[in-house]
Structure to design on (366 residues):
DNA sequence: CATGCGTTTCAGAAATTTCTGAAATGGCCG
DNA sequence: CGGCCATTTCAGAAATTTCTGAAACGCATG
């Protein structure tokens, strides 16, 4: 398994960025490798390509799977597992956003609700601030739920609309788009 | 400086979440403390409230400032600095998103462009994949630019619209909202 | 039910990040 | 200038995360 310069650079970059993205270097590299590879790869190939230990590959793949970022294929007459990333980049983005939400937002939302359940305890400012934060997060997660339901094509539309968004909102009320939203 | 139970819990939670958010525990705690505090606090108060070292506080505050997440006030006749978080939660969200983009997305976009500049090198699949990824990221950052330009009120509108988003897009074309977007 | 092949687990080593105390810095005031 | 107060810097200590090699596991096959 030899990598082209292009692959090398891309993979190293993703390794470094891994840190900032809350995954570790190896996981980032494995992902990058799979992303650029037309053919699915097995663990041995990944190990060789990245010069890491076999066990590290195993852990990395496990991590990626827990993020739902890889697909697993098996080949007839070969009992090794082969891994790829989804072809549709939007699917990847959706997965990423969903997982980050699950890890970074949802636990906080739960915690905030829990804190609110305790009822008034004298610290009115803090209590108000917490309630406000909880409401904001709820609003955003609801929005996210909606976005998640949209298909790729729709999302691209929305994105492409770009600077028309503002004026769109102007017209929205006239179009009777304002339904009640559960809060 | 004594913390209520509520504050304690909230602060500890943010400390733990800090990891997942790419900031360290202390920074998360400092932020949480400031967030819940009606009055601005100085470094000494933070140090005491969180039982950490003075220098750790200093580093944490510096980090928060590099994220644009705190405001600094000075008091007449007192040369210590006092810190708060913005009142407007949307401002906080905007800052957070903008900073994360700066740290997590922009460097990758630059790298991808750089890789593309090298021109064809034989690995067509990888090159296509990279181009595709670059386009996707560009589209998303452009969308983000638009969102960033919107005021709080508009954003809340957009969010609140929730499940009407899909049908909104149905009508959009009829409204001649489709301008050219540079790609 | 033993063998072979591939994967996972796990304890400790290595690397990295975070935190601290001590010293350095900066600037205001008498 | 020299003392004072507040903050920052920084080298090393402490804590945490990541990585490895060895052993354990799982399972299809002869």
């Amino acid at each position: 398994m030899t990598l082209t310069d292009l692959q090398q650079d891309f993979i190293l970059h993703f390794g470094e960025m891994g840190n900032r993205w809350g995954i570790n270097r190896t996981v980032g590299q494995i992902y990058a490798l799979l992303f650029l590879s037309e053919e699915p790869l097995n663990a041995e190939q990944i190990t060789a390509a990245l010069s890491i230990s076999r066990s590290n590959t195993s852990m990395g793949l496990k991590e990626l799977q827990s993020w739902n970022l890889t697909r697993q294929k098996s080949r007839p007459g070969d009992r090794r597992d082969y891994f790829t990333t989804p072809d549709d980049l939007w699917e990847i983005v959706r997965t990423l956003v969903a997982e980050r939400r699950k890890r970074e937002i949802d636990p906080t939302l739960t915690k905030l609700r829990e804190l609110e359940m305790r009822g008034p305890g004298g610290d009115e400012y803090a209590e108000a601030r917490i309630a406000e934060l909880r409401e904001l997060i709820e609003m955003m997660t609801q929005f996210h739920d909606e976005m998640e339901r949209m298909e790729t094509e729709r999302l691209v539309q929305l994105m492409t609309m770009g600077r028309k968004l503002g004026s769109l909102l102007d017209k929205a009320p006239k179009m009777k788009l304002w339904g009640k939203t559960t809060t």
Observations:
- Residues 42-44, 54-55, 58-59, 62, 79-81 of chain B lie near DNA strand D (CB under 10 Å from a C1').
